[in-house]
Amino acid sequence: MTLEEFTSKIEGIFEDEKPGSLTPDTDFRNIETWSSMYALIIVAMFETDFKTTVTGDQLRKCSTVRDLYQLLPK
Amino acid sequence: MALFSVNHVSLRGVAAAVPLQKESNRNYDWITEKERTLLIKTTGVEEKRRAPEGLCTSDYCFEASKKLLHDLNWKPEEVELLIFVSQSRDYFLPATAIILQHKLGLPVTSVAFDICLGCSGFVYGMSVVANMLSSGRIKKALLLTGDVSTISVSYQDKSTYPLFGDGGTVAALEWNENVAPMYFNLQSDGSGYESIIITDGGCRNPLNAESEVMTEVEKGVIRRKKDLSLNGMDVFNFSVTRVPPNVNELLAFSGVDKSEIDFFVMHQANLLLNETVRKIIGIDAAKVPYSLKNFGNTSSASIPLTMVSEIAEALKTSKQKLLLSGFGVGLSWGSVLTETNNLVVSDLIEI
After folding, report:
1. Quick check: is A39 in a domain?
2. Where in the sequence is the domain holding A41, given as residue range(s)?
3. Pairing mode, if any, of strands B182-188 and B140-147?
4. Which domain holds residue B286?
5. Which pairing describes strands B167-175 and B140-147: parallel, antiparallel, or unpaired?
6. Under DSSP, is residue B218 helix (H, G, I), strand (E, B) or coil?
7. Cβ(B300)–Cβ(B118) under 8 Å?
8. pLDDT digits over B121-170, tens only?
9. Total domain count for chain A?
């Protein structure tokens, strides 16, 4: 999956975000509707769609969409 | 490895009692409307039941037990084993099971004791009851499980308050020479004991003035040390990494293929977590019932309550192969594979 595809997948999680409003460098915690619930939704997405477990510690170290992309299995 | 089978025991009936008072998460005004909508969609909890002051877990278990004994046509004096699984016992001591033995009219020749477990409690309780019945010396047993959790959650803690509901249940088990074995896989990991914890009020940290102080732990989470604290991320990761292998090992051990399972009844933690576990195991959604929507997370009551509220008709009228899985506080988790035949399922009691 390319970084662009991944960015639009993350964007899809946030219902209020217009298509194209997220970039790889968006700090996802600065998205207006961000709450801790989204952290769980992102971790669940990694588990279901990418068969990858992301821990709380790993997520805390991420701030941008690009950081999240780095967690994908190589 | 705590992977074992137990012979000659059958699950004969289940009943559940919940508080009458409903509390809808649509009215949970500690968070914004947008957050509420996301919370309900993600956790799957639209409403839950809240016990009024003065009603304890044992009161719900008691009413459920009276009804189930009646529906099974069992006399209280025939029941020789009562186990109460709960983290909300009546008193610091004595054990609540013994009080219930007397209230229900069980003989003084019966065994009664408590087990202190939460979300895994129903499966653990079944394993203890089944082992004690297996030799045939004791023929009939009641397993009472549940919690009044709303007493220990802070309204200003969005990570716990909207999730938990109250309820008490009972399962009746009986010695029977001609039934398929029950298969169990039980596990524990105390390294995660802080993931779900009430720190104050036990012997380690007796209640003190500080236990009552409301403290902001993170944005949207204000609670006291005597309140429940839950690390959602840790619990999520624990559940999705531990439960699927536990279930898969159990299936392999029992020689049962997952396609043969009629219902996979999981502890009702939250919808996102449960659905992730379900997808990893690869069980058809139609086989996985949820009571989360109407009752929330009811701790050790969640599995029997789901059986009563969601799949009673199927259980009552036919033979079913059930895979039951509980996981949470401890950390503790376990699964059981059992068969039922025209299970007696009492109508849901509301008090």
Report:
1. yes
2. 3-69
3. unpaired
4. 1-351
5. antiparallel
6. strand
7. yes
8. 999 999 999 999 999 999 999 999 999 999 999 999 999 999 999 999 99
9. 1
Question: Which chain B residues are closer than 8 Å to A47 by Cβ?
Answer: 240, 276, 280
Element (H, E) at A38: helix A36-50
* Chain A residues touching residue B35 (CB < 8 angstroms): 35, 37
CATH of the domain at A48: 1.10.1200.10
ipTM value greater than 0.90? yes
Q: How far is A40 from chain B (nearest CA, A)?
A: 6
pTM (predicted TM-score)? 0.96
Which of B38, B234, B237 is opposite residue A37, by nearest beta carbon?
A: B38
B207-254 tens-digit pLDDT = 999 999 999 998 889 999 999 999 999 999 999 999 999 999 999 999
CA B148 – CA B86 distance, rounded (Å): 9
What CATH number is attached to the domain comprising B247?
3.40.47.10
Angle, vertex CA A73, rays to CA A70 and CA A74, nearest 5: 80
Determine whether the interchain pair B220/A36 forms a contact, defined as Cβ–Cβ distance below 8 Å: yes
Please indicate, yes or no, if residue A18 is contained in any of the structural domains.
Answer: yes
Q: Which of A35, A39, A47 sits opposite B276 (nearest CB)?
A: A47
* Residue in B39, B159, B237 nearest the CB of A55: B237
Q: How far apart are the first and last CA of chain A?
A: 10
End-to-end CA distance of chain B: 41
Residue positions counted in chain A: 74
Neighbour count for residue B213 (Cβ, 10 Å)? 11
Query: Is the minimum CB–CB distance between B273 and chain A shorter than 8 Å?
Result: yes
Residues with Cβ within 8 Å of residue B244, at least 6 apart in sequence: B277, B280, B281
Residue B4 corresponds to which tokens in the numbers above? 């074992």
Check: CB of residue A26 under 8 Å from CB of residue A65.
yes
Instruction: Identify whether the C-beta of residue B164 lies closer than 8 Å to the C-beta of residue B232.
Output: no
Specify if A53 maps to a domain: yes
Q: Measured between beta carbons, which residues in chain A are less than 8 angstroms from residue B276?
A: 44, 47-48
Residues of chain A in contact with residue B233, where contact means CB-CB under 8 angstroms, are 39-40, 43, 55-56, 59
Helices B33-43, B271-281: axis angle to 10 degrees equals 30
